[in-house]
Amino acid sequence: MNDHRKLGRELDLFDTDPLIGAGLPYWLPDGAVVRHTLEEYIRTAERRAGYRHVYSPVLGKRELYEISGHWSHYSDDMFPPMDLGGEQVVLRPSLCPHHAVIYRSRSHSYRELPLRMAELGGMYRSELSGVLGGLTRVRAIQLNDAHIFCTLDQVAEEAQAALELIRRAYRALGVRPARFRLSLPGPGGKYVAAPEMWQRSTALLTEVLDHSGLPYEAAEGEAAFYGPKIDVQVTDSAGRESTLSTVQVDFHQPARFDLRYIGPDGAKHRPVMIHRSIIGSVERAVAQLIEEHGGAFPAWLAPTQLAILPVSEAELPNAEALARRCTGLGLRTEIAGPERGSLGARIRDARLVPYQAVIGAREAADDHVALRLRDGRRHDPQSAADVLARIVALVDAHSTGLWDQGEVPGPGAGPESLSGDL
Fold this sequence. Notes:
By secondary structure, the chain is an alpha+beta fold. It has 13 helices and 20 strands. The protein has helices at 4-10, 29-48, 62-68, 70-74, 96-104, 155-173, 195-212, 252-256, 282-293, 316-329, 343-349, 361-366, 384-396, and strands spanning 14-15, 26-27, 52-53, 59-61, 82-84, 87-91, 115-124, 140-150, 179-184, 217-220, 229-235, 241-250, 261-262, 268-269, 272-277, 306-310, 333-335, 355-359, 368-373, 382-383. Helix 1 packs across helix 9 and helix 6 packs across helix 7. The longest helix has 20 residues, at 29-48. It is elongated. 39% of the residues are buried.
């Protein structure tokens, strides 16, 4: 079992301290590399998909959450308000109210829609101590969030495109979903009382799922308080299930915040708001990656991508020169010199590093390296330039494979169908 809490500490990725507080992990340098690389991948994918990024504060007035409905439906999961200059401010439990206000701050024409607004932003939830654990349940969350403001006719296409973004991300991360869930409201008073709204939004998401060909299960009592959602479920090493990615349709908050756009008829119309998260919280995504790969991350995500192993001190200058070339190419490299022990011991120590470049006297003379792959494969000595070019191509392609030609998508490769295993 790859328990991310145990592996995360053994691999110096993250840790916790009672002085900082429960549910508030801190990231060590290698973990910060994984997190930063993941965040940049998501931002780039979103930019290419037509999203524009914003920043919004982690605090908001209590009134903001009263308007959004969080205060009446979600306050048990929020931190208590803080008195500030005669006003009450709250650590936000979600980003959507801020994005609704940002949308409302400017007038919009139907020609601007769909308007896709994204943010990797902090939010806070008052989780009980008994449910906190590692990175999967924390109190300070960095959320990969986005909100699409669109017309009713655009909802299905935008939700389908969001599922496609999720599919591509899972492929690059090497993560397999356990199942897809259509999360519906259940009995009780925690949901907005608007039967027609629920019916319309549920019908839209059902249409998206049916069109995608994905097998899914409906589950009552799992919806957000303001609308149904498509949840992509994953399981951890102990078989526990959690939600990683979501797509939601929301008619509630556009009405609460009186959001409008000017239609082709010159009149004001209400947009629909799609909530969408490719990887959910960065914390939970990294926890899933640790457990899925046992710390042997895909090369593009690995804290160290290439370990350089000079056989003796004589080859150390060649190793240093190779490391400088790697840095210039954007590769994360570490030199494991003879001072760290025998070559065999150094190879074992670097077992989670995707690539190991061994440099002996013959390789140093020819500007070659003897490449070893993390999966045990070895290559005959070959040009260092060719090796680096190949590794860079694999990293840039966000491949989960290590070397084979078929593991890198060609320049004309198109997206696969969403059906099957995402």
